[in-house]
UniProtKB/TrEMBL annotation:
The chain crosses the membrane at residues 46-66, 146-168, 286-304. It comes from the Bacteria. One of its GO terms (cellular component) is plasma membrane. Converts cobyric acid to cobinamide by the addition of aminopropanol on the F carboxylic group. Its main location: membrane. One of its GO terms (molecular function) is ABC-type vitamin B12 transporter activity. It comes from Dyella tabacisoli. This is Cobalamin biosynthesis protein CobD. The keyword ATP-binding does not apply. One of its GO terms (biological process) is cobalamin biosynthetic process. Belongs to the CobD/CbiB family. Keywords: Cell membrane, Cobalamin biosynthesis, Membrane, Transmembrane, Transmembrane helix.
Length: 306
């Protein structure tokens, strides 16, 4: 029950404070990873694996050691803070809601600029529906990456698990690209992130399906997810799009070139309301996870007490 209540406290802390504006540990970790990359980069998979281990494992071990030496109250407080720093639920709304507001006001330029802070595609080339699709896709995918992945690994391994997941996810964002520089060096970061996200992504997709248009979500997950390049983003976004009954995916511009992408979901074209409903879907899924974790902890604790 202590871990379940720590999850609840961390989510409430994130809701109240959002991400730290100054001196976020992940910013400092990014600088550390950049230094490691500069020293160890080579066009070899083994070099990338070594760099990943050097960046991640000492910090995970340090987290475990500090918690193992702490009193119960210090353990609980450090666990709450670690999970709070690993999730970014409130930041999803802080990034996505301005896009929805600008679209609702008919200000496409502001909407393009706002969604440009969420996605890597060329937003200046997007029309209103494509802007809404980009923001909705980002909310659905980052619901898994920035929220549910950390909650899952915290529930499984405590604060060390949340730290492991968040650092691995950060390195995937830094090194996990299929470019000449990272094709081999970033292979380990990308594959490890895929492994760590495999179960959480599917639990996220299932949560979206349960809380939305269930039959449509499951149908889209089954038919459309295998067509997506990412083994984890595919189920999450296909199920999310189906749950919202909205059409996502399709061609998108990157570096001046329109790249073909599979279509996701079915139903209406995305608009400002799609973004708002995606945020609501993620929020409801967070509540569902917390209720289930607390209920399970209560059942297990009651059984152990009996």
């Amino acid at each position: 029950m202590s871990s379940a209540l720590a999850m609840l406290a961390a989510v409430l802390l994130d809701s109240a404070l959002g991400e730290p504006r100054r001196a976020h540990p992940l910013v400092m970790f990014g600088k550390l990873a950049g230094t490691i990359e500069m020293r160890l980069h080579a066009d070899r998979r083994l070099a990338g694996l070594g760099a990943w281990c050097l960046a991640v494992l000492p910090l995970v071990a340090l987290t475990w050691w500090v918690l193992s030496m702490a009193t119960w109250w210090l353990w609980w407080t450090c666990s709450v803070v670690a999970l709070y720093l690993a999730i970014g639920h409130r930041s999803l709304g802080e990034h996505a809601q301005p896009v929805a507001d600008a679209l609702a006001a008919g200000d496409l330029d502001v909407a393009r600029a706002s969604v440009g802070r969420m996605v890597s595609r060329d937003t200046a080339l997007l029309d209103a529906s494509q802007v809404a699709a980009a923001a909705t896709e980002s909310v659905l995918e980052n619901g898994s990456d920035a929220v549910f992945g950390a909650l899952f690994w915290f529930a499984l391994l405590g604060a060390p698990g949340a730290v492991l997941y968040r650092l691995a996810n950060t390195l995937d964002a830094m090194w996990g690209y299929r470019t000449p520089r990272y094709e081999r060096f970033g292979w380990a970061a990308a594959r490890i992130d895929d492994v760590l996200n495999f179960v959480p992504a599917r639990l996220t997709a299932l949560s979206y399906a349960v809380l939305g248009h269930t039959a449509c979500a499951l149908r889209c997950w089954r038919r459309q997810a295998p067509q997506w390049d990412s083994p984890n983003a595919g189920p999450v976004m296909a199920a999310g799009a189906g749950a919202l009954r909205v059409k996502l995916g399709g061609a998108a511009p990157y570096h001046g070139v329109w790249e073909a992408r599979p279509e996701l979901g079915e139903g209406a074209m995305p608009d400002a309301g799609s973004i708002t409903r995606a945020l609501r879907l993620v929020r409801h899924a967070v509540v569902l996870w917390l209720v289930l974790v607390i209920l399970l902890a209560w059942i297990v604790g009651g059984g152990a007490h009996a």
